[in-house]
Amino acid sequence: MRNSTIYHKTAQGTDEISNRTLKLANELRFVLILVDSLSTVEMTEDKAPPWWDVKQKLKELEEKGFISTEELLNTEESEPSKAGISTDLDIKSQLIKIAQSVLADKSAKVVTRLTESDDSHDALLTTVDGCVKLVRLVIDVKKANDLKQQCYEILSKNS
After folding, report:
1. End position of a domain, from candidates 18, 49, 80
2. Is this prediction's pTM over 0.85?
3. Are 91 and 158 in contact (CB under 8 A)?
4. N or C: which end of the chain has fewer CB within 10 A?
5. Torsion of CA 99, 122, 145, 31, to 10 degrees
6. Total structural domains in the chain?
7. Is residue 3 one of the residues assigned to a domain?
8. Is the pLDDT higher at 77 or at 100?
9. What confidence tier does 128 reach under pLDDT thresholds 50, 70, 90?
């Protein structure tokens, strides 16, 4: 696997994220969520905690049919917002990126909560509220406010 490889979720991968039918391990599910059809393997590794073996998880996801290096042939399928398909995965990935950006090395609990959250808008909103309270109590009020402001901006754009 090359660092420049770009993976895409297959229909099976998208279904697993939406329905959690196979109950993937948390780290494996998180790596599946990070696959966004834009990021290279190297970029995907940068988004995950350093102790995860992202390349191994990507290989496992590919072997199980959840991701592929092949582009989607139907352009409507590759553009969820135009095809009327839910973009909750993109929203969740954006929220995770925000948490990692705002909280840096203290983002693990928030990332876990976001990863385990249901994909619906209301569930994500509730999860963000809980994460903001956690950050306010455990880390810092300013970071909690930054997290809240940035996450609400993403959620309001996609409501």
Report:
1. 80
2. no
3. yes
4. C
5. 0
6. 2
7. no
8. 100
9. very high
